[in-house]
Amino acid sequence: MSEPARMSLLDRMREDIRSTMERDPAASSPAAVLLCYPGLHAVWAHHIQHALWCAGWKLPARILSQITRFFTGIEIHPGARLGRRLFIDHGMGVVIGETAILGNDVTLYQGVTLGGTGKETGKRHPTLRDGVFVGNNANILGNIVIGENSRVGAGSVVVRDVPPDSTVVGVPAHIVYQNGKRVLITDPHEVSDPLSDVIIALADEVKRLTARVDKLDDKLDGESQQSRAEPASPLTIGQQESDQYRSEQASRSDSVSMGEGI
User: What DSSP assignment string belongs to 163-223?
Assistant: First the structure.
């Protein structure tokens, strides 16, 4: 995942400046990046703090991280492991937890939280693999893994693993793109949303009502066909015969009409 840390701090600073120039169209010059990008300042300070943390100087590392947070608005725990070319753009409010692991070429926007859940011990923060992009105000919580080159939409809350080359959005987040193809959700069970149970209940009710309407339609069609197939009643037949007899009598020349004498 992360490349071995064989570069000096100065070399990594130069690499970060070049990477920022390539990835941010607002970066007008290396001097502007060096002086005006608090995300880079926080990352560079973290290299020193992480070295102190690993050497057992945990309290000084924490104090320095709090000082960095005061000046940059970005909180990175000294125990977090950061890959190369991490780009924190407009980083105010970014929080990276103690056991978080970030790969190379990760991009974080303002307000991103890589946090834990509850009071677990051990690995309790997320792992972001190479090339992950996280939009502003997204929350990635717990010991989960975001796969290579995946994207987390702004404002999303991710609580489950995300496969590589995927895009997730929503609260909680669900996959909308994977391997460059749109993912269509046809089953409400696939969305772990607080309102998904209501949607599932409505879908079941619609299915039940549809089946009931279909049965009523079949019953009405059967009754209509039966009424067309039934023979005429005896009363109707007698009336038809009576009308035919009167018509025949009226057409005869020797018949006598009402009011005529003999």
Answer: -SSEEEETTTTEEEEETTEE-----GGGS--TTHHHHHHHHHHHHHHHHHHHHHHHHHHHH
What's the one-letter identity of residue 231? P
- Give the per-residue pLDDT at 103: 94
**Looking at the structure, do residues 123 and 148 belong to the same domain, yes or no?**
yes
Three-class SS state of 118:
coil
Whether the Cβ atoms of residue 146 and residue 130 lie closer than 8 Å to each other: no
31/29 Cα distance (integer angstroms): 5
- Please give the backbone phi and psi of residue 75, each rounded to the nearest 5 degrees, phi first: -110, 115
Distance CA 84, CA 33 (A): 17
Does one domain contain both 22 and 123?
yes
User: What is the rounded (10 degree) CA torsion for 99, 76, 103, 114?
Assistant: 60
pLDDT grade for 90, boundaries at 50, 70 and 90: confident
Is residue 97 located within the same domain as residue 225?
no
189 in any annotated domain = no
**Class of residue 2 by CB neighbours under 10 A (exposed 0-12, middle 13-18, buried 19+):** middle
Q: Which amino acid is at 69?
A: R
Domain total in the chain: 2
User: Which residues 6+ apart lie within 8 Å of 157 measured at CB?
Assistant: 138, 139, 141, 170, 171, 172, 173
Tokens 């990477």: give the residue. Answer: 19
- What pairs with residue 146 in β-bridges? 128, 162
pTM for this entry = 0.70
Locate 255 and state its tokens: 């018949």
221 and 129, same structural domain?
no
